[in-house]
Design a protein that fits this description.
With about 200 residues, this protein is α+β, with helices and mostly antiparallel strands. Helix 1 (about 5-25) crosses helix 2 (about 70-85). The chain is globular, with a radius of gyration of 17 Å. Strand 5 and strand 6 form a beta hairpin. It starts with a helix and ends with a strand. Strands 2-1-3-8-9 form a five-stranded antiparallel β-sheet. Strands 4-7-5-6 form a four-stranded antiparallel β-sheet. The protein has five helices and nine strands; from the N terminus they run H-E-E-H-E-E-H-E-E-H-H-E-E-E. It folds into two domains: about 5-110 and about 185-200, 2-Layer Sandwich (Glycoprotein, Type 4 Pilin), CATH 3.30.700; about 110-185, Hypothetical protein ph0010, domain 2 (Dna Ligase, domain 1).
Length: about 200
């Protein structure tokens, strides 16, 4: 799915509105009926919330839908609310924090299974800054977005290891022949300041 800069700004605004409306009034916004047609197509999406603290942008919540199971607009609203109040790693976002957080929206391509003859080929199949990863094993799965290894300056092996750990697996579990690893890409738009200018994120 192609997303223009203007459409990306609108998606971020909708995510922001969903977060603020739910945090302040515990109400889910209803999407407009006159949005671009592509907003009603099924698409994977994640909403990330970061808090500006002491000159740093610290993660405050991140939840989404890896697979295209829901219309984009519905997934944006639900993911924004969930990132604000349901991420188990954090306390629910408070109304007092709304002026201090940045909203980021990642629109995902459908995940694609990485096929290898040997697990040691996985690093060569992963492009840092382009690919996100999903690691799936018998006990569950974990996902990391394409922008994460760029932010932490990881190489492909580190990225694979951290995705394993996100799934609750040992960091070297990607070397097991009994797991599945998927990759996907994302178009990412982020606020540069709370309620401020929105830019397409570059890897």
């Amino acid at each position: 799915m192609d997303i223009s800069d203007e459409e990306g700004k609108l998606l971020v605004k909708i995510a922001r509105d969903a977060v603020e409306n739910y945090v302040r009034d515990c109400e889910r916004i209803e999407p407009s009926k006159d949005l671009p047609e592509k907003f009603y197509e099924k698409c994977g999406v994640f909403v990330t919330i970061k808090k500006c603290e002491y000159g740093e942008k610290n993660l405050r919540g991140c939840i989404g839908y890896p697979y295209p199971d829901n219309p984009l607009i519905e997934a944006i609203i639900d993911s924004g609310i969930a990132a604000a109040v349901e991420d188990p790693r954090f306390e629910p976002l408070s109304a007092d924090e709304l002026d201090e957080v940045l909203i980021e929206v990642s629109v995902l391509t459908p995940p694609e299974l990485i096929v290898v003859k040997s697990p040691r080929e996985y690093p060569s199949k992963v492009k840092i800054g382009e690919d996100g990863l999903i690691f799936r094993w018998v006990w569950g799965s974990g996902l990391l977005l394409p922008q994460v290894p760029v932010e932490y300056n990881w190489d492909a092996e580190e990225f694979l290891s951290h995705t394993c750990m996100k799934a609750g697996a040992p960091p070297d579990a990607w070397l097991s022949p009994n797991v599945n690893i998927y990759k996907f890409q994302a178009i990412v738009f982020e606020e540069l300041e709370p309620r401020g200018k929105v830019m397409k994120k570059k890897s």
